[in-house]
Amino acid sequence: MNTLLTAADIRYAEKDILELRTASVRVQRIYSKAFALLSGYYPDGWWQASTGLGLEDIRRLYGAGSEEPGTLLQKWIKSSLGWKCIGCGIAAPPIGPDGAGVPERDPLSSPVELCSLALQASVWSQFEKTMLLHPLLRDELFWNGEELADIAAYLVPTYWSRSGLHDRPYECRPRSTRGIGIFQQWLPAPTVRYESEGGSVQVRWMTGVYVRRLDFIALGAYLKPSGGERIYLDPVFVGR
Fold it and tell me: How far apart are CA 175 and CA 183, in angstroms?
């Protein structure tokens, strides 16, 4: 059961900050490796039609060679299973190296979120097949042992379709509204009470970790009212 707190009670322990600082970079590395593989198989038109982003836009976020990398907002939940990343969005204006810039909703956020879900569904599909066929694959593994451990620890099971989901020991919910159907394990987030001029409302407490290329930039809480816009709180820790 979630503990009801107020937004003013939100704090991050030092161990959580240290874990997220490391885990966010590892997750970003997994996304980038998956994109490097998939970009060789799917043309620009597929990415544009499926996610709303072209290959060049995605390379800015996940490619190693981009001269102007974008700043990604990784979305994390502290669940009963530990810290879990459920996908990525984008912040605008981006948070600078010194933490300057307040994140707001960006027009590209929805396509970026869908792109991250497509990558995560691909990663999870490979992960499940690898764990099943590990004894046979031996030295032909795409993901090494450390990466497999990171996928298991930090990513949420994500799937391309409903097929077979009724056999899963957890609830999955749809995450996409475009042409591709993506489903993901549902994880309840901690609940807090947010006080505003309009009154008091119960919201979900999410954690945004900002990364650029393979660099940790900052982290901070954001709140999700039911059916409302996200409420971003100031970053509580900025990387140096």
Answer: 5
Q: Which of 44, 81, 91 is nearest to 208 (CA)?
A: 91
For the chain, the domains span 5-238
Please, how many CA atoms are within 13 Å of residue 164, restricted to the half-sphere of its CB?
Answer: 6
Could you report the per-residue pLDDT of 117-153, keeping only the tens digit for each? 989 999 999 999 888 877 666 667 788 989 999 999 9
Residue pair 159/190 in contact (Cβ under 8 Å)? The answer is no
Output the pTM of the full model.
0.85
31 φ, ψ to 5°? -55, -45
Overall size of the chain counted in residues: 240
What angle do helix axes 14-38 and 145-154 make, rounded to 10 degrees?
A: 120
**Of the candidates 201, 204, 159, which has an alpha carbon nearest to the alpha carbon of residue 184?**
159
Q: How confident is the model at residue 106 (pLDDT cuts 50, 70, 90)?
A: very low
Which residue is listed with tokens 């009470």? Answer: 193
